[in-house]
Amino acid sequence: MLEAIEGSQAIARAVAMCRPDVVAAYPITPQTHIVEALSRLVAEGEMHTEFVSVESEFSAASVVLGAAATGARAYTATASQGVLLMAEVLFNISGMRVPLVMTVANRAVSAPLSIWNDHSDSMAVRDCGWIQLHCADNQEAVDTTIQAFRISQETELPVMVCMDGFVLTHTLEPIEMPDQTDIDGWLPPLEFDRRLDPSDPKSLGTLVSPDFFAEVRHSHHAAMIRALDVIETVDDDWHAMTGRRGGGLVEVAGDPEAKIGILAMGSTFGTLETGMEHAGAQAGRARLIKLRAFRPFPAAALRAACAGLEHLIVIDRAISPGLGGVVGTEVAAVLAGAPDAPRIHNHALGLGGRDIPETIYADLMTAVADPDGPAFSVFDADLTKLDPEDR
Amino acid sequence: MAEHDPRGERLDELRRKFGREPLPPGADQKELTPREAQPRFRGLESGHRACQGCGEALAARLVTECAGPDVMIANATGCLEVFTTAWPQSSWRVPWMHSLFENAGAIASGMEAAMKAKGKNTKVLAFGGDGGTYDIGFQALSGMLERYHNVLYVCYDNEAYMNTGIQRSSSTPHAATTTTSPAGKERMGKRHLKKDLLAIVAAHHIPYAAAASVAYPADLQRKVRYAMGIEGPTFLVIHSPCPLGWRHDSALTIEVARRGVECGLFPLVEIERGAVTNVMPIRKVRPVTDYLELQGRFSHLMTPDDARAEEERAHLQALADHNIQTFGLRGDTPDAGDTQASSSVGRGGHPAGRV
Ligand SMILES: Cc1ncc(C[n+]2csc(CCOP(=O)(O)OP(=O)(O)O)c2C)c(N)n1
Ligand code: SF4
Question: What residues make up the domain containing A326?
């Protein structure tokens, strides 16, 4: 049954359905509604979990690490400054290969202070060794959250579920909430073999000499690459039960024969789809490519999705100052060897909550036609606000 | 003829596009209110975006009024930071900087070290809410105190994370509801006690740590002046009601704060090098229910014939009684602390003396 639910409330309910043993979180806009909704479920006795109201995100991440290390199913959520304050623990969690799920309600990073949406936070920790999945709408966010617990268990890797702050977290959408009994059957109990257990004592997080460090990293990388298959099979399995897909690794929409492609992560994808429908014939139809799995990076799936394109517009919702766009650069790298690789037009859009209107579709399609267009731009920046030397 | 100034012209254009409507001619010559007409220094101007009746805004004005103008401020993330500054406006008349939520103590330490290096006497103030002080910024605060930086740290204690929409902090009183400590079938609001931060701060053996309340502005300002006269780390926690989060009438900020002191739940004590040296006496002790009944965050404790509510009220009363006994708050003299009003400014390096 479809229900109109706010994204955050839906995520809280999806998390509750996965029956986590321990939840620890700290308020930060725009993730706060998720913690608040979870608190209410606990206070009303509708969710039985040890809910730890910590004093910082650093402790939120550490509490769930401690819990997960004992074999408990654990969950946390944060955004922006919270992600960055967790950074040290995030590397630690994945380095120990502990299963965990975290929602990131994507938001810009200070300074200047902005509570609004972009992807600077999750981009800043792209190399922390977590699986990173980006959701295009709230249905996908619900489905991905539940899938994340299973992916995490099967891969023994932590999973970060990214959803655009406000645009998704604070928006009411019709959502099909799954059935509790279905989830109970679909998500097996967590059996974490390497858990801390007095009957079989193990040491976690030990010092490793140079004799072993490279092998640890190699195996972490290999596990991430193997996770590509797991993400797909879990999505297939979900589809078999619910009839819906969470988005696999990469999804393609629009015109499959188009010579121009636009690639985006998160809710921007929906804006482009609608923008294309409303733009009319003059703007032309593009192939729209949705990148759901940012880590592990699905090189083969991307090559397949981009085959035959002459131009590929890659949208970044963050900027790596001095480089440009991270997604754009990475996509260019995996396509580089391919025959007839498309020309990449990389644009950062919607930084710090700048609205992305539907008309952006036509604007992007127009910009592609410019043979002298820049390889990278902050597409929607109004340069007249800057001193001439900063333009 | 004036020189062509492209930068100025561009700024004018930006102001026209993004700035406020210009005032009609003569509007800036309005009559001053009696407060505005007072020849006293104002570090925090009006016109900011705090809610009506915000205790924190009042407290910050009182502090900067008698600490300034030769100060600089490190402000943690929180309501005070947000409602006083939104580009391109600022309410501060003193140098002010916001960095992050959890590092005000350390930013202030850096400012102070620089002042020392340059041989300057400008006093550094650090401002934080209870979240930024009791919780996430606690480590930086402790380091600042232990390293003995010449900083006055002021915590505006509104007993929850207000800026993100009223979540519990370790300063939230027992049994109060917040959005992360809601009352429900299985909960009666916050399950844990309010952290006794003043005792922890005092355990750093700093020269001066005190509690103040916006209900007693003269006492508050006396404490600021006293702290300003000390060279070394000093700490002030100011009880600052938040009408939005505590859910009380915004006209009752002072009344709520006063009852908080008069029932014993928020004792106004002064601690010097670990020893209690002064307390604000309570002439007529009120029952805690006088304080609770004004605030929606405690409304679940006021339901009649509810054993759980009764138990929590008794619990809070016991906490107040404990404070009254521990600090000997019961007094038959007038509110001695609330009689000072002089506005002299001292700062680090001057011989400390009670004014
Ligand atoms: C590392 C980090 N986590 C969370 C936040 C979000 N945040 C901003 S202000 C705030 C609460 C402020 O509460 P408090 O310190 O009590 O000040 P108040 O707003 O009540 O004055 C929170 C949680 C942040 N800015 N940085
Ligand atoms: S929410 Fe509370 S602390 Fe924040 S500005 Fe309003 S009254 Fe002041």
Answer: 250-390
- Decide: A235 and A247 in contact? Cβ < 8 Å: yes
Residue B172 Cβ < 6 Å to ligand 1: no
CA distances from B132 to A81, A141, A316, B213 (A): 14, 31, 33, 18
For the sheet containing A376-378, what is the strand order? A250-254, A287-291, A260-264, A311-316, A343-348, A376-378
A30 lines ligand 1 (CB under 6 A): no
Interface of B with A in 169-198 (CB under 8 A): 169-170, 179-187
Taking CB atoms and an 8 Å cutoff, what residues of chain A touch B187? 42-43
Return all residues near A352 (Cβ < 8 A) that are at least 6 apart: A108, A112, A114, A116, A118
pLDDT of residue B24 exceeding 80, the answer is no
Partner-chain residue, chosen from A29, A111, A387, that has the shortest CB–CB distance to B7: A387
A256 and A164 in one domain?
no
User: What are A44's strand-pairing partners?
Assistant: none
Q: CA distances (Å), B7 to each of A385, A388, B3, B18, B21, in order?
A: 11, 9, 12, 16, 21
Beta-bridge partner residues of B105: none
* pLDDT tens string A291-340: 999 999 999 999 999 999 999 999 999 999 999 999 999 999 999 988 88
Chain B CA closest to residue A56: B136
Q: Which CATH number covers residue A257?
A: 3.40.50.920
Distance CA A23, CA B3 (A): 64
Q: CA-to-CA distance for B202 and B194, rounded, in angstroms?
A: 16
**B6 or A240: which leads in pLDDT:** A240
CB atoms inside a 10 Å sphere around CB B15: 12
Q: Taking CB atoms and an 8 Å limit, are B10 and A44 in contact across chains?
A: no
Residue A31 domain-assigned (yes or no): yes
Q: Mutation target for A interface from B107, B164, B174, B200: give the one with most A CBs within 10 A.
A: B164
- Our answer on whether the CB atom of B78 is closer than 6 Å to any ligand 1 atom is yes
- Nearest residue to A315 (alpha-carbon basis) of A251, A255, A250, A265: A265
Tokens of residue B237, six digits: 């926690």
Per-residue pLDDT, averaged over B171-181, amounts to 98
Q: Does B167 touch chain A (CB under 8 A)?
A: yes
DSSP for B84-126?
HEETTEE-BSS-EEE--SS-HHHHHHHHHHHHHHTT--PEEEE
Whether B18 is in a domain gets the answer: no
CA dist B224 and B343 (Å) reads: 10
- A61 CB near a chain B CB, below 8 Å? no
Among the partner-chain residues A40, A45, A55, the one whose CB lies closest to the CB of B170 is A55
The DSSP call for residue A336 is T
Predicted-complex ipTM score: 0.86
- Rounded to a whole number, what is the distance in Å from the CA of A335 to chain B's nearest CA? 40
**Does one domain contain both A237 and A254?**
no
Q: Give A27→chain B minimum CA distance, Å.
A: 7
| CATH number of the domain residue B128 falls in | 3.40.50.970
pLDDT at B270 over 60: yes
Residue A123 lies in a domain: yes
The span from the CA of A75 to the CA of A19, in Å, is 10
Is residue B340 scored above 60 in pLDDT? no
Question: Does B89 contact chain A (CB < 8 Å)?
Answer: no
Ligand 1 centroid distance, CA of A218 (Å): 39
Tell me whether residues B179 and A53 touch, CB distance under 8 A. no
How crowded is residue B38: how many other Cβ atoms within 10 Å of its Cβ? 12
What tokens does A229 get?
Answer: 């298959």
Indicate the residue type of B197.
L
- Round to whole Å and give the CA distance between A213 and A197: 25
Contact by Cβ (8 Å): A118, A268: no
Q: Model's pTM, two decimal places? A: 0.91
